[in-house]
């Protein structure tokens, strides 16, 4: 509300800037965020970027399985990653309010190791099918709305260890989801 008493709903809805303390709580991640603070614009179609970005991973770079879990440990999972990650920071309501930091991976690089029966789906409007743990209500991963088959969106904050050689953070405007996706602004993990 301004001094004249008028409400500016659009302005009120804007999110505050994220600080390094808001991000994954490791010195490496915080330093990488402050140093890089990526605002990279991707213009190629998403499927083309997957092929291109995967091809750009060094031939000698090996992937390894990294574990993650919800808060109570009832749901556990593994993700196959290289040592170079891109983590997306989305400002849509659910990602912002839950603190979700996206690691977008192909289905073949993700596996649920325990707790499939502990997952509770949550869907609103035309959004993605989010999956929360029934016990602790943490959102460890979900099927992204942009790619409902073939991909998983994993919460970086639910990973047991994020000490990678390089972690880049990418801002994604989820408040304008359709326009951002159409402009090719979604980032993949590798």
From TrEMBL:
The keyword Zinc applies. One of its GO terms (molecular function) is metal ion binding. The keyword DNA-binding does not apply. Residues 66-178 form the CENP-V/GFA domain. Keywords: Metal-binding, Zinc. It comes from the Bacteria. Belongs to the Gfa family. This is GFA family protein. It comes from Streptomyces antnestii.
